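Design review, sub-item: ligand-bound model
Attendees: FS, YL, KQ
YL presented the inputs for the LL5AMS7Z complex:
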Amino acid sequence: MVRSAEERSTPLPDSDRILTPGATEFLAGLHSAFGARRDELLAKRSERRAEAARTGRLDFLPGTAEVRSADWRVAPAPADLTDRRVEITGPTERKMAINALNSGARVWLADLEDANTPHWDNVVGGQVNLYDAVRETIELTTPEGKRYKLKPGRHATIVMRPRGWHLDERHLEFDGRPAVGALVDFGLYFFHNAKELLERGSGPYFYLPKMESHLEARLWNDVFTHAQRELGVPHGTIRATVLIETIPAAFEMEEILYELREHASGLNAGRWDYLFSVIKYFRDAGEDFVLPDRNSVTMTAPFMRSYTELLVRTCHKRGAFAMGGMAAFIPNRRDQDVTAKALDKVRDDKNREAGDGFDGSWVAHPDLVPVCQEVFDGVLGDKPNQLDKTRDEVSVTADDLLNVSATPGSATDAGLRAAVDVGVRYIASWLGGNGAAAIHNLMEDAATAEISRAQVWQWVRNGVVLDTGATVTAELVREVLAEVRKELDGLAHLDAAAELFDQVALADDFVDFLTLPAYAKID
Ligand SMILES: CC(=O)SCCNC(=O)CCNC(=O)[C@H](O)C(C)(C)COP(=O)(O)OP(=O)(O)OC[C@H]1O[C@@H](n2cnc3c(N)ncnc32)[C@H](O)[C@@H]1OP(=O)(O)O
Ligand SMILES: O=CC(=O)O
Ligand SMILES: [Mg+2]
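KQ shared the predicted structure:
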């Protein structure tokens, strides 16, 4: 039985194009086939984390050694996903969608996840924009009269990122329970666009976020098989790129690709959520896992380097693409110095990735497409990718992945203030419906905000001593929070954001994702 938001609130413009009877029936089928398994897998996450907290360790799985030693490869790439040297990410808001498709990037990661607040109008509006983007009819005239439409010629290939398994979508209910956000995002996009994309020489492509195990990948694979069968789309049409952005998933890269091998396109080094996950997993495992200021944890920290090296090695052994992550520096068209710094930082980051064997990488802004393109052009030459760079010499152990204590840097008073300031500003933006924001010339989204608040929690729990000699306590954090509130006086949603920050940074019971209590506060 389905109850939709339309019964409770004013219908959104154009939502009737998306929430059709056929689409809702398709979603109901997905929920009755997979809803219970999703719940079981979420429960397993807690069990595994409790075990890691007890032992202070994670390891490669003994039970899947055969998968790691056997000879297999993922399905070959479709034509429009063979060259992924530059991917632009961004929310599915209409203007940004058009700008992303026109940006010159090979791929647009159309984001219903880290960069999106799941307000119901963003969820449905995003699907409307995707529907029009797929059909290349997307246009917009702003209230100021500026017109946006697709340029003639090739546009970025669309790869849609649905929400992770943990988030509900309470505007739809199936059998009296809130819907699963991931199934709603995937299901609506697939139902409306899979056949259209195939007719246009593309396909239904997805990025899959925040998975913690190969069993979660198996669930996605079964969802794909079911969806393709239900709609009469050939098996193996879907392609999925999995974000390796949790520490347990780093121990199951091969198994995740194996589960999805008929639908897999690659793995992505989702560095920001990865950092968050490392802090979250080992938050109470003692000082060996305490990280210094967020800004000093770079991709050259030994544990981050081990993670990306293993990712490239694993992907290329299996014929899958290794996709780089996001440098957070954002250009500013009104400030040349900021832009020059961002271009330098992004160039360094992409140089490292291209040299390590990644097949392409992410940028957060259209003005960063050329620099990423130039770096990868330099390494790839005439080749569309570097799957042939197998990196056989790489060998990464469990200890390497967990070598957090070798991270250079220190915990400072400025770092604490920055964490509180960014956390509050970002949550306020998210509550207002904007899930990606430039704050102090850095891109902030749900993943980066999670780092800020998790780090504060970890510093309090471990009684970290700052460069000033002060010990981080809940009282100190609340003092800083009060100062930040004063500085941000007048910011929309400030009170709710500060209250939420207090909860997710200081509550005794660590909140799994800040978006869970934040979602309860919207609409
Ligand atoms: C950890 C992760 O998951 S990373 C991936 C998720 N995060 C993201 O995708 C963030 C993507 N980036 C963004 O959302 C934006 O770049 C922001 C919010 C950081 C900054 O956006 P703005 O403040 O609008 O930047 P700015 O004013 O410089 O934008 C200039 C133009 O570029 C456009 N633009 C900026 N970023 C993007 C983007 N990612 N995609 C498409 N267009 C973009 C703007 O819409 C604007 O267009 P206009 O000139 O037609 O008005
Ligand atoms: O999704 C990407 C990340 O870095 O997190
Ligand atoms: Mg992420």
